[in-house]
UniProtKB/TrEMBL annotation:
This is VOC domain-containing protein. InterPro entries: Glyas_Bleomycin-R_OHBP_Dase, Glyoxalase_6, VOC_core. Gene3D superfamilies: 2,3-Dihydroxybiphenyl 1,2-Dioxygenase, domain 1. Residues 145-259 form the VOC domain. PANTHER family: CONSERVED PROTEIN, HYPOTHETICAL FUSION PROTEIN. It comes from the Bacteria. It comes from Rhizocola hellebori.
């Protein structure tokens, strides 16, 4: 895990980009051996309420402008490597950072070594099933306008940042030295990609996005649009509840759901 995709602590004026009618990021999903336990942990850390999910697993719902839920779905695949995505949690003060760390540790998190240096001010933790996340120090300019989840920090190429900007209709707010970041026009967290070197993908991700087609669109039209942007279908039909499995240009899996 690099230092937050090389983005944390830097300021940059937003880069203007035309907003498109696009998919909605409905959920960030984590594979879990014990979904209810994982949901209780993240509900406690974030202060978000838990709900049963109508498809499978359990979810926590945002109580701020985050715009997506976090879903925990059953999996029997053990976690064997760093996730391609982790949360960066923000802090308003040094004491606030320490309180977040203490709360997470009390709920079952552990300190996690990813090669951070003694002078690094962010704290790296892992949840009870080993999913990494960071508690960022106060005064971070890049995340100053974001909420408690300041960023979804991703390992990924510049091309995949461009893809997700167009897929979600979120403008680029950073594009420098092959590092990219996007943010919803409605606020909430940024999604950042650290650029090269990108770790080789050796197994199916335990963290993935769920997308809902535009309100005035249909699933097949959105699948076709995403394919034209560089995504690929990774199934030959539809999954449970009509979901279509796809992969972004870096090979990260995601689902396109049926309209509601």
């Amino acid at each position: 895990m690099r230092d937050k995709a090389g983005l944390i602590g830097t300021g940059q004026l937003p880069i203007a980009e035309e907003r498109l009618v696009a998919s909605q990021l409905l959920a960030v999903c984590f594979g879990a051996s014990d979904p209810p336990s994982q949901a209780r942990f993240w509900s406690g850390v974030l202060g978000w309420p838990m709900v049963d999910d109508p498809r499978d697993g359990v979810a926590v719902l945002p109580s701020d402008d985050t715009g997506f839920r976090i879903r925990f779905v059953p999996t029997e695949v053990p976690k064997a490597e760093l996730n391609w995505l982790h949360f960066d949690l923000t802090s308003k003060s040094f004491d606030g950072q320490q309180q977040t760390v203490a709360r997470a540790l009390g709920l079952g998190a552990q300190h996690f070594d990813v090669g951070q240096l003694p002078e690094d001010e962010h704290v790296v933790l892992a949840d009870p099933e080993g999913n990494e996340f960071c508690v960022i120090e106060a005064g971070n300019n890049f995340l100053a306008e974001c909420g408690f989840i300041g960023a979804l920090s991703c390992d990924g190429s510049q091309a995949v940042g461009y893809f997700w900007s167009k897929a979600l209709g979120w403008p680029l707010v950073w594009d420098q030295n092959e590092e990219t970041a996007i943010r919803s026009p409605h606020g909430g967290p940024k999604i950042t990609w650290g650029g090269p070197p990108v770790r080789p993908k050796v197994a199916e991700n335990r963290v993935f996005f769920e997308l809902a087609p535009p309100a005035d669109g249909d699933q097949q039209a959105e699948v076709d649009r995403l394919t034209s942007l560089g995504a690929t279908r990774i199934d030959t039909g539809q999954g449970e509840d009509g979901r279509v499995a796809m992969a972004d240009p870096d090979g990260n899996e995601f689902w396109v759901l049926t309209p509601r």
